[in-house]
Amino acid sequence: MTEQLAPDYGRAGRNLPMAIAVGIALLAIVGFTLKYSLLLFALLVSGFMFLAVRELITALTNELPRAIRFIVSLAAPIIVMSAFWGGPEALLASFVSAVLLIVTVRLPYGQENYVSNISRAIFILVYAPLMAGFAVMLADSENGAIKVLALVLLTAATDIGGYASGVLFGAHPMAPKISPKKSWEGFIGALVLQVATGCALWVLAFDKPWWQGAIFGLIMTVTATIGDLVESMIKRDLGIKDMSALLPGHGGVMDRLDSLVVNAFVAWALFTFFF
User: How far is Cα 18 from Cα 178, in angstroms, rounded to an integer?
Assistant: First the structure.
């Protein structure tokens, strides 16, 4: 019997042409919804968060009672849409309501794994829909479509700059126990491209001082890298390569959105402060 070997994708670790094609398709869908309907964009984000939560439930919380899994799955789109319709107050209220419901409904199932169960359920809600809620609030603000586009482009610049620089010059691992492919050279490349992208966006798209874009680029490079490392740590702890195989070339929804959901809050906070 001939042994079937897994495809060797080199230092990329993935089918890069497929990943690029899927990435462009996702960007086109997001751009379409931003251009024609912010409600449609919010619904799109809600759908992504429902899928992301289902991935996280499968990876983290198979031992959870079915009722808790149902609550977490249902709460994800509700939290996102609450942020769209009601802003920060509604986002916080919907999240806290979901947490209170989880800790209450879990009570009848006994004390075994109680803290572990509710901690994992709450972590899922924080990690995905709560963070994503800031993206829809950003979209619903003045010049929201351009701000979300800036969020996406800045986060993508981290991936592109980090990948290109890492492949060409990577020699010093950043966090070998978490993500062996990440290097300090890649981080520097990501930082350079992201700061340059931020400066260009702020001057051309927002008519604001270039240094504000540089600050955005600097901060969001760090937070995007943290988001990527957190996702890598979760998967390493669970012993899996990807959250799922839903997106060819990327893995699961959270494999693609790990940096974006973290940067969604960061972008919302920075835009609120500067604008």
Answer: 25
pTM for the whole thing? Answer: 0.84
Distance (Å, rounded) from C-alpha 214 to C-alpha 194? 8
- Any residues with CB less than 8 A from the CB of 148 and at least 6 apart, and which? 30, 34, 41, 135, 138, 139
Say if residues 42 and 136 touch (Cβ distance below 8 Å): yes
Model pLDDT for residues 16-31, shown as the tens digit of each residue? 566 567 667 777 888 8
Vertex 244, ends 238 and 247: CA angle to 5°?
Answer: 145
Q: What are the residue boundaries of the structural domains of the chain, listed by start?
A: 11-274
Phi, psi of 131 (to 5 degrees): -65, -45
Specify whether the CB–CB gap between 95 and 130 falls below 8 A. yes
State how far the Cα of 87 lies from the Cα of 93, in Å rounded to an integer.
Answer: 10
- Alpha carbon distance 135, 128 (integer Å): 11
Q: Where are the alpha helices (DSSP H) in 106-209?
A: 114-125, 131-139, 144-169, 184-204
The 10 Å Cβ neighbour count of residue 251 is 22
CB 263 within 8 A of CB 223: yes
Specify whether the CB–CB gap between 225 and 190 falls below 8 A: yes
Q: How buried is residue 99: exposed, middle or buried, by Cβ count under 10 Å (0-12/13-18/19+)?
A: middle
pLDDT tens-place string over residues 28-83: 888 888 888 899 999 999 999 999 898 888 887 667 888 999 999 999 999 999 99
Are residues 246 and 253 in contact, defined by beta-carbon separation less than 8 angstroms? Answer: yes
Angle formed by the axes of helices 114-125 and 66-105, to 10°? Answer: 100
